[in-house]
Each structure stands twice: as structure tokens, then as C-alpha cells.
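Request:
You are asked to prepare a plain-text protein record giving the amino acid sequence and the C-alpha cells, at your earliest convenience.
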Amino acid sequence: MLLSKVMSPALRVVLMLAAVTAAVTPAPAATAGTDRSADRSRQPEPWRPWIQEEWAAPAGRYCAFPLRVHVVSQDVRVRVVDRYPDGAVRREEFAGPLVVDFVDDTTGRTTRQDAGGSGVAEYRPDGGWLRYTIVGPAGFGFRPGDRYPQGYYLLDGLHVITFDGDGTRRMAVALGNQDNVCQTLAGSA
């Protein structure tokens, strides 16, 4: 059975946050005179609704054909977990049910998928992506030039995607399934 099918959403989030913390937090260094108590006292901001917009990608970005995502149902929420000193978002958490249709816009072939996992997005101070951690199922795309085979994937399990300064995407951790929706829609999965 898949990880997402055997544990509660709350436990999945706890495990995901523990994994993210372990994977991305450097070992504490001795810092004389630094008071980190303010960091420990911060609480996540309240959850708020988040809308997954429908989108389309041209042929060649993820798949050999134009890929469209149609949202069937959703109740996704987001909350800010951490901010930079200037107030910019450093880390935010996403969770909630999401069902989508992936559509090959050339043939009309469609596959309906549960993409309602959980995730933590981490941003650089300039707002660019740094890391995205998923406890799936959730979708994510890799483009030509990324450090992972091109495609749009439904990721189930624990996955960590990192972003180089130039935007190149890498799959740093892949524990679970990585189903390429492009192959599914093309009939070769």
C-alpha cells in the first residue's frame, strides 16, 4: 500500500515536517550571544483557503503534447510557517484534498488523479523557490534541462525537490512512486 493510504493526514504532515527538518536543518553551531528563543516561540500563522488554478503547458515543457490540468474538486489550505526578518515568506505549508484531470490537449485523453497530499514550500529571500517537500500524492513537473527526466509526475510518498539559483529543478529525495502522467496519457505506462 502507498504511504498516503495507510496513515492519517495529520500523521503524514507530522512525518513530513520531521523529515524536512532533519533533511534541511544544518547542525546547530555554537553562537555566542545569539538569542534564538524568539525563533522557538513563533507559531505558524492560521490556515487559509488556497485555490489550485487550472493551467496548461505547451508541448515540450513537460510532455511531448500540450498538457492541461482541470480541477475537479478541492479544499486545499495553506499557512505561513516561517518568515524572513523583512516579513517575506520563508516557508509555507499546503494540505487538503485535490482531485484533478490531466488532459492531453491534442487527443483529449484524460486521467483523473488524487493530488491531495501535503507539502512544504521553502523560498529564498528574493521569493524564488529553494525547496519543495511533498508527502503525496501531489503533482510536480520537470522541464528540459532539469536534473530529473522530463515529465509531469504524480508523486506519492516522500519527495524533496530542490531549485538551483538558476531555477533548475532536482529530485533530491524520492521515496515512493513517481508516475509520469505524460506516459500515462500517451498510453505507455
Remarks:
- The CA atoms of residues 65 and 106 lie 6 Å apart.
- The radius of gyration is 18 Å.
